[in-house]
Automatic annotation (TrEMBL), chains A, B, C, D, E, F:
Residues 108-168 form the Serine acetyltransferase N-terminal domain. This is Serine acetyltransferase. One of its GO terms (cellular component) is cytoplasm. One of its GO terms (molecular function) is serine O-acetyltransferase activity. Pfam families: Hexapep, SATase_N. It catalyses: L-serine + acetyl-CoA = O-acetyl-L-serine + CoA. Keywords: Acyltransferase, Amino-acid biosynthesis, Transferase. The lineage of its organism: Bacteria, Pseudomonadati, Pseudomonadota, Gammaproteobacteria, Moraxellales. Its EC number is 2.3.1.30.
Amino acid sequence: MAVANWKIDNIVHGLQQARHDWRESQHRPKEFGGRELPSKEALKAIVDDLCGILFPMRLGPADLRQEGEDVYIAFTLDKVLSALYEQVRLTLAYEARYRISATIRDSNHQPDAAMIQQQASSMVQTFANALPDIRRLLDSDVQAAYEGDPAARSVDEVLLCYPGMLAITYHRLAHVLYQNNVPLLARMIAELAHSATGIDIHPGAQIGKSFFIDHGTGVVIGETCIIGARVRIYQAVTLGAKRFEVDDAGNLQKDYARHPVVEDDVVIYAGATILGRVTIGKGSVIGGNVWLTHDIPPHSQIMQSMPKPKISV
Amino acid sequence: MAVANWKIDNIVHGLQQARHDWRESQHRPKEFGGRELPSKEALKAIVDDLCGILFPMRLGPADLRQEGEDVYIAFTLDKVLSALYEQVRLTLAYEARYRISATIRDSNHQPDAAMIQQQASSMVQTFANALPDIRRLLDSDVQAAYEGDPAARSVDEVLLCYPGMLAITYHRLAHVLYQNNVPLLARMIAELAHSATGIDIHPGAQIGKSFFIDHGTGVVIGETCIIGARVRIYQAVTLGAKRFEVDDAGNLQKDYARHPVVEDDVVIYAGATILGRVTIGKGSVIGGNVWLTHDIPPHSQIMQSMPKPKISV
Amino acid sequence: MAVANWKIDNIVHGLQQARHDWRESQHRPKEFGGRELPSKEALKAIVDDLCGILFPMRLGPADLRQEGEDVYIAFTLDKVLSALYEQVRLTLAYEARYRISATIRDSNHQPDAAMIQQQASSMVQTFANALPDIRRLLDSDVQAAYEGDPAARSVDEVLLCYPGMLAITYHRLAHVLYQNNVPLLARMIAELAHSATGIDIHPGAQIGKSFFIDHGTGVVIGETCIIGARVRIYQAVTLGAKRFEVDDAGNLQKDYARHPVVEDDVVIYAGATILGRVTIGKGSVIGGNVWLTHDIPPHSQIMQSMPKPKISV
Amino acid sequence: MAVANWKIDNIVHGLQQARHDWRESQHRPKEFGGRELPSKEALKAIVDDLCGILFPMRLGPADLRQEGEDVYIAFTLDKVLSALYEQVRLTLAYEARYRISATIRDSNHQPDAAMIQQQASSMVQTFANALPDIRRLLDSDVQAAYEGDPAARSVDEVLLCYPGMLAITYHRLAHVLYQNNVPLLARMIAELAHSATGIDIHPGAQIGKSFFIDHGTGVVIGETCIIGARVRIYQAVTLGAKRFEVDDAGNLQKDYARHPVVEDDVVIYAGATILGRVTIGKGSVIGGNVWLTHDIPPHSQIMQSMPKPKISV
Amino acid sequence: MAVANWKIDNIVHGLQQARHDWRESQHRPKEFGGRELPSKEALKAIVDDLCGILFPMRLGPADLRQEGEDVYIAFTLDKVLSALYEQVRLTLAYEARYRISATIRDSNHQPDAAMIQQQASSMVQTFANALPDIRRLLDSDVQAAYEGDPAARSVDEVLLCYPGMLAITYHRLAHVLYQNNVPLLARMIAELAHSATGIDIHPGAQIGKSFFIDHGTGVVIGETCIIGARVRIYQAVTLGAKRFEVDDAGNLQKDYARHPVVEDDVVIYAGATILGRVTIGKGSVIGGNVWLTHDIPPHSQIMQSMPKPKISV
Amino acid sequence: MAVANWKIDNIVHGLQQARHDWRESQHRPKEFGGRELPSKEALKAIVDDLCGILFPMRLGPADLRQEGEDVYIAFTLDKVLSALYEQVRLTLAYEARYRISATIRDSNHQPDAAMIQQQASSMVQTFANALPDIRRLLDSDVQAAYEGDPAARSVDEVLLCYPGMLAITYHRLAHVLYQNNVPLLARMIAELAHSATGIDIHPGAQIGKSFFIDHGTGVVIGETCIIGARVRIYQAVTLGAKRFEVDDAGNLQKDYARHPVVEDDVVIYAGATILGRVTIGKGSVIGGNVWLTHDIPPHSQIMQSMPKPKISV
């Protein structure tokens, strides 16, 4: 089969030039050695193992027997924490190399490998210690879904196939990493959930216990959201920022509270949009498609007063 | 590399305690042996094989030749039905163990393995017998997509890459399982389609022939929906429940008709929301973003009369 | 374990009959040899390799070192272009077989294998030549995302985990295939991105540099859209067709401009719906949930004037 | 590509007839359900895991750390013993079905599944209990190889790459299974070693500590051999049976002592052949290519007195 | 980690020069397109499938049930014969390219692709037709091993783990390919068996029914051997050529009968060496280590009269 | 299924105790971190890649085209040399840790990681530089096999399926590593060849060009052998040591010349045994089964004068 030679040299050269121009524009130092970046595939495997650790008889290996739970967890923890340590270390080393956010550098302003390792180790320990509490929170979420959906027949059905359950599981893991200063890893985990479920929860969001998202496609929950206990949310709900503030130089401002506070026992129906640092008072019910940019007192019932659709037969 | 020891014993103990508390709260009997639960990965493989059986020259193995279709189908059917039988059996055994919905128990109120096997076998046979009719329904769906989308260049393009086609294929398989009293398996298959396409069709929904969903992201179709023939739906359409009814004790009521009836030849444009047991009459067209909670007579044209947006330059 | 025999012969026969009826209805010639169709899995592998070629130190193999970039690219290009050639050849052969769109046939009206190979070869060369420019466009998209999202901490974070970045990368590759007359392959690549991100960009859409989609779930961009430079779009935005035009015989008309033109520097917030061949003037801002079916002059600010929601406490 | 149709029906029919004739000739009962036979692949995986359990820091997973040895062993033991149990159960069930050797049958002369399970369980427990002693024996073998080969630079080199070490490791595991009445499994393990090393040790052979085989290709050690401590053997040595005895009916007799006894501290050089139930006395040295069919007193030096080869220049 | 740059250009250049010199020395035409050579891995997969086809309930897939045998065989045959066809075609095309042995070329002395395909197709059909007879021969071999080895406990043990059984199975398949003029494929299959068992049977050897090799390591059976029915052979037996004949120009002569003829019911014990075109008469027994280069009459008993070994204590 | 609990704690404890005793007996320092040992699997992959680099169009990837050879080699070299570097580094670090042979330690007698890396890097560079010469040597070996075996039909058949060719290829690679002071790696590669072919060549052996081993099972070539050009060897030939010398303390002496010197153009037939530092003069022919322990002048013909076997009919 006469396949062309593709003139590969030209294309290689063109790509080389494009990379060169980009690196110039970014003032990137020349890299030596490997690329030293966290890996999506590695994180996926880590999160899968963590799910098995949290729910061994439901999400662990198919041939696990209950009397072997603890041994399985100990062995898998040892493996997964070392794998996570490596991803944290890669992230910190990457950030030190490019001086991103809080970086670790020695007295010559060079990345300090020993300090990076020590800090990675400490971060992973903190993460590991949080796992039992995460399990308890997730138990409350399972129960909330079971009680909140008339179609749910058992708690195990929730764990095995509800996308909202997957999203909150990934989020509770990612949120601990976010709190421990590896936001890049946290974000990568959040995007794994986003891709699988269509639910986009920023790992910075604080979410109370017994949280339930039904259907979920199109849900967006922003970085500085604070969500209370027993909150229920349906598909296509946005808890977003009203607008982005810029400083005098016109640069986007970061790290200020710009997303809603949702108090305990609130229900938000499909398609509702709540923008800005507003507070939805305890026990309120927000109807479908409601558009909200101001505070709501506790126990309110909000209904979008849509104009009647026009009907012609 | 000085990697910490992670104090694994503490974490294992903390997780053990959390599991213990959960199982107490659920009054779970102690489990012996393996976990005996259906598996998402096994179901994914089963559905992939079923797609190959239904459309051997399009979704079967790449090296299949047309003269080998029947042998391929016979061999794969034998394999896939045994695999499905095992998943059905696991599901029935699981339900008997936890006394979920209709359970099979012997005179000592214990799960009856022989009856479970017999019932699983009978359910799988019924499922298998439905496959030729499913193929015919799916052929009508392919044709509907081809005729309904100006961008479609061939019926094969529809089969190979339309997400709506994937969603309805999975649904028609899942719906037969739902009708045969393995709703957990049906739901797991529906969620595989949901994750891949963003289209969330509850396996209980009854859907007529020549059904077409375009784009599809964010579509939600509820458990008790009844959809006629030649219906077309666009992205972000919700056919949902208006509210959940509770009994006198405050518990959610289940198993009553709470989702729309959509009659033949209806078109529903993107973002429309139709809630409750309302009927959309034959041949009606529901415009984009329409919000509907009441019956619509046949051949209606419904348009959301949106207020003019405010423009400032 | 007494597993039933499944009466496979009946089912095989039923499926055979269904296939026969379908092929009759489609006037399909009997196929000999293999199925000769492009493969989703093959395309996925091709696009993965292309991502590595475009961004070797970010999306290439984990153990790549910067001094080996060019050799890696040359080797992978050679491999991936041959693989792509095979997919293009399969597509052209398929189209010739079924007389779809522009087909290649010899003087006896039979598919002409040599011409198909030659044309496939030429199409792949054109595609390959476009790669350096695609890289430059994607660099502008990365920069746009970094500057447009207060949560983005580095350009690498954008490349590694933003779904909008994945969608535009796949689109820019697919668009070149669309322009080179293999729309089926282009569409299959677009659907890979759609499934992973919930963002549905038709490969025909023309999109300028520095394009940024945030969150992205539910975005739909139609086939004849023209989008300028530095445009920013949020989740659930639709740039769609108003209605489908039919000819006198009632057949859908194809290939006419039916989607919006969005000029440079436009921002479109979440949930906005813009339908038909309308023009959104340069520098305009379209607010959330706006519903638009007419032209907008440059530098407009459009806000949906929603009726106040009703509140009851 | 015009590939023939292969007239498969004829071949299928021919094979069917051949199988039928064979089964008739063997008086085989018709089988229902699956084939219920132990699997070579499963045994290979089991032996690999057992090697890791015996030498975790040398043959266990590459990323194991010494502080995690016990947890790794506990987890892997739990997994591997269950896998071995299944292979033992399949073997016993197979033997009961075909009435091979000691079979387990109920009062109706049918295989008794419960008894088979109980016996399998007990056999595996006995096997598991033997593992620490096997490790101690293998340590003595490693030390013997290190001391016996001038080319060996470390004990770890012996463990990692000496074929004789692999053969004796597999043998010591297989021998325990042989003693516990699952000779078929034992034989399958022995053949795995035979294929990898060219060393053929029947699992029935009794071999003392500090055993060393150098090079090893072509070594054959028969079923009833008894080998003392600190024995050293080179390639192509045969410890075989002189002839097979038949009973009056002309059938081969089984289960009588027909292979050599090799006492402590014997060395047997390459190519020596020792046949029959003879005893090689303690501390003897058997030269290369020696042919022996009678007893040898302790501390003998045996040299083959070869006729001078003829030389012509 | 400071890894060197390896000066790859120099090495690539050095290798290029070495390849160039070799190709010059071989008068090789420049190759275009792919390498077009049969593949060891592909053949391994083909032989594995053929083993399953021949013994479906013993060497087929673990989950096969007896009632599905024929469907499994038909499906697998269709797949494996097409795969074999491709290997045969590659071999014929390779031989035509390099003018090896009988080559297929058109009137311009170029390889003729159509003729090659036709011939490959015909060869595969002949091979396929031979499968039922091969099964019957192998059944006789299984029975011979069971009856000839006092350690064999069942016919299935022979099939599952005797290396001699694997070797004769591969040989009987390879021999049919050898007879059908694809000796390269035949040789590759023979070497797969050689590597797994240490038994080296040239695919040209003609071997009668009820053949049994015990232990087997080091057995060599030459290309022109003729072996009768019910022959038994032990390890390290050589049936070889005495010397290679050269023509007047000093080139090795090929294709003449140069290996032994072994008549029915002969037994040859371990280490015996029989060289040249000699005949071992029916029913003879050749003792261990015997060295034979002349004919032996029927029913002889041959024993090597070894000089007594010297013993010193 | 009632599977026992296996009393795993006891077994884990027993194994722990056995490991403890062994480590005590070996005066092993406690290990921290991972096991840091070279890996058989990694070496297998490295050697496979090196074979592809040496013979790209014969042993490289199936889809390689000749015009892409150099790019393939450059890319694969870059990858494989880094992988080899890691194995060399692990080996040196391991040897430094246990003070085996020449170890690299800093002024505190601790392993010096930087020096180890530097030395590993230098060793790999030397190895890489040797590849073109290895290719030329292997070309001479291919030619020798083709000319020396009447059954060989093409040089490619030799490369694709002769076990002797595999053995000499692995040996020539291993020998360079042996010369560069990583004998453990060299030995592991030699054992990979030994396991696949039954040919056991110590990596220390020096072997001239145009070397050919036919059949090969059971060949043993010792560490200090020196073999000239154009030597041909058949199966079961041993070139071994006569006896092992011990020093006054009774320890085995190492590193002295103890194996044969085989001069140019010698042929050694099957089963010959040559022991000790003897010289086989140029052009000699050693007959089958000859036993030799003294020098042989050039151009000798050595034939074993076997006593006639006894024949009884």
